Amino acid sequence: MAPDYPTVLDLVGRTPLVRLQRVGRELGPTLLAKLEYMNPGGSVKDRIGLRMIEAAEREGRLRPGGTIVEPTSGNTGVGLAIAAAIKGYRCVFVMPDKIAEEKRALLRGYGAEVVICPTAVPPESPESYYSVSNRLAEEIPGAFKPDQYSNPANPDAHYETTGPEIWEQTGGELDAVVLSIGTGGTISGTARYLRERKPDLLVIGADPEGSIFSNPGNVHPYLVEGIGEDFWPETYDPSLVDEYVAVSDGDSFRTARRLAREEGLLVGGSGGTAVWAMLQVAQRFGPEATLVTLIPDSGRGYLSKLYDDNWLMEHGFLEREAPAPTIEEVLAFKRQEEPDVPELVTVESHQKVGEAIDLMQRYGISQIPVVRHDGGESLADLVGSIRERGLLERVFRNRDALGEEVAAAMEPPLPAVEIDESVDTVFADLSAGNPAVVVARAGRPVGVLTRADLLEYLAHGRTADGA
Q: Which of 442, 171, 129, 147 is nearest to 290 (CA)?
């Protein structure tokens, strides 16, 4: 018996259309979401990967053993990588640095090479991921750049599949379609097909705040991935879009998390953008209306970002349930728990490494700020730090290092913070590899706060205070 699906590429498309049961229920209209993360590669971009490759093969631009080079936020790369794996092509993908690590790892999992470029540069910059991909496509022998931003196979794929699927799934009974815009291929191809059958269909573009489509005069960086642009792609036909709804990062992320918790739909930030925009448009319609949107990808690629409370707090999208303690509160608890340990232990740069180790053992500490000789009165006197891990490696390799001056073994100074600030200000420093920070009062060092100190306070100190 022949298999139902000869290859995984035969599973692309025919994604389900599901009705939202709770989100927007109070608005009245029927709200439908097309779940593109049900494609084998996990996104709407699966639809265009194979078509762009096959078009290039027909035109002689991609030959056996060739290399595919593409700038991508991840999803197009997956669609291309799946097709390339079956057809035997090498893939090199160029991504902006704001893209979640999960997406980079996913592309590498398919055997692709990944090049990372800065996000906060204009598209014409030599460092932009558009420019770097152009350079690589020129330098690599046998390279082909599909360029989803100008390739007509992009919107054609949606004209041939996405549009017809929505028409069939709704029986032609739909009043508005709300689609996020990235390359413009999805909204252009889908809207073109649907408009040919229903000329009065309302087409709304959901766009991140900071993108060129909804506000050309105020283009600026944003955090939602995979949609919005800072230039006008050739694959986008703006004549098919009636209006735009600009959506903030915060509204996108909060809506995505709401969909997961209220509808059981784990969607990416672009899905949150699309649904939030659909909710705004739905307010114009009555209960007899039907609105359709499309969820471009799953939230599995964003677990370290929009589904991580700490990441949201760092970017100001989520507030703590209780006010964060001040650094002074944490140090006060530390002094209470460790009354025999001086508030600030330092070692002078001319002292011996063996003396620094003795101080660590005496007070049970793992790092000591290093001060210049006869210094220590201000932060400017802190010239470095001695850390347990670095000393272990140094002394293990050479026992004579015990007699060296601290200056020869010290590492960079610990970050410094003022005592009256919130611990939120040190969270990033302590999470980024620093074992501790120096605490200052009006520029004068008065203590050291370690990761262990903060953990101990959060676990026991706040409870003891009745927080």
A: 171
How far is it, in rounded angstroms, from Cα 376 to Cα 354? Answer: 20
Instruction: Identify the architecture of domain 327-464 in CATH.
Output: Roll (3.10)
Q: Vertex 448, ends 446 and 449: CA angle to 5°?
A: 130
Rounded Cα distance between 267 and 440, Å, is 44
Q: Which of 45, 103, 305, 334 is catalytic?
A: 45
pLDDT for the residue 314: 81
Architecture, CATH, for domain 46-144: 3-Layer(aba) Sandwich (3.40)
- Catalogue the E-assigned strands of 283-435: 290-295, 347-348, 367-371, 382-387, 416-418
**What is the residue extent of each domain of the chain?**
8-42+159-314, 46-144, 327-464
Task: Tell the residue number behind the tokens 């506000």, with chain if given.
Answer: 215
Distance CA 296, CA 61 (A): 29
**316: pLDDT strictly greater than 90:** no
Task: Decide if 334 is catalytic.
Answer: no
Task: Please tell me the distance from the alpha carbon of residue 276 to that of residue 282, in angstroms, as a whole number.
Answer: 10
Average pLDDT, rounded, for the chain: 90
315 pLDDT tier (thresholds 50, 70, 90): confident
Whole-prediction pTM: 0.70
